Amino acid sequence: MKITFYGQNSLAIEVSGTHIIIDPFISGNPLSKDRVNINDLKADYILLTHAHQDHILDAEAIASNTGATIVSNYEIATHYQEKGFNVHPMNHGGSWDFDFGRVKYVNAIHTSSFPDGSYGGQPGGFVIEGERKNIYIAGDTALCMDMKLIPMQTKLDLAILPIGDNFTMGIDDAILASDFVACDKILGVHYDTFGYIEIDHEEAKKKFYDANKDLMLLDIGESIEL
Ligand code: NI
Ligand code: MN
Questions:
Q1: Residues, CB-to-ion distance under 5 Å, ligand 1
Q2: What is residue 7's predicted lDDT score, i.e. its pLDDT?
Q3: Per-residue model confidence as pLDDT tens digits over 101-141
Q4: From the CA of 75, how far away is ligand 1's center (Å)?
Q5: Distance, CA 202 to ligand 2 centroid (Å)?
């Protein structure tokens, strides 16, 4: 499993030859827009955690370019289906066996309106079980006790957690979240994009290190292999 970071919560995941894009917000991200061309991205699936602009901005363009299937909650999937895109609707607690692996849409505590204010269902995260490696993409969320349910069913190899604070968990809560999901290998996301969520990288890494955890912060376009 190869995971590439495109800023905010935008990721590309390559698993079993399948290309998955998570929460594409690239053309409007001052950190990413000059470094990543959305027209170059491959996608078989686009997974959207919730309807906020900093998670869906480039979904339509990438889906138009690639014919990718948009996977999200029922309301978001229906929104894109009405525009003619291929979709797979899910809802909280539900899993589906895709060709690349199993995906579960799990709880998040946040909000989920579309940019025009229309209803985007309830926000979520994804647990992806694929190619012998399992990952958790928390999406935008507060620390919540529901995270403790995840390791009861899935042994995670990586937890992708928001750490920017203000709109989501900050660093201290993300450290607790990594305890809750029983995974000490963390990829930090949702930081530095706007003033409200700027973080001190060295301080963040030290706090995780002091808790015997490994926090990875990738450059835009940088990848890791699991
Ligand atoms: Ni959000
Ligand atoms: Mn967000």
A1: 52, 140
A2: 98
A3: 999 999 999 999 999 999 999 999 999 999 889 999 999 99
A4: 15
A5: 22
Q: Evaluate if residue 166 carries a pLDDT over 90.
A: yes
Residue 200 Cα to ligand 1 midpoint, Å, equals 21
SS (H, E, C) the chain: CEEEECCCCCEEEEECCEEEEECCCCCCCCCCCCCCCHHHCCCCEEECCCCCHHHHCCHHHHHHHHCCEEEEEHHHHHHHHHCCCCEEEECCCCEEEECCEEEEEEECCCCCCCCCCCCCCCCEEEEEEECCEEEEECCCCCCCHHHHHHHHHCCCCEEEEECCCCCCCCHHHHHHHHHHCCCCEEEEECCCCCHHHCCCHHHHHHHHHHCCCEEECCCCCCEEEC
0.85 exceeded by pTM: yes
Q: Domain limits of the chain?
A: 2-219
In the reported structure, the alpha carbon of residue 39 is separated from the centroid of ligand 2 by a whole-number distance in angstroms of 22
CATH code of the domain occupying 2-219: 3.60.15.10
Query: How many angstroms does the Cα of residue 139 sit away from the middle of ligand 2?
Result: 8
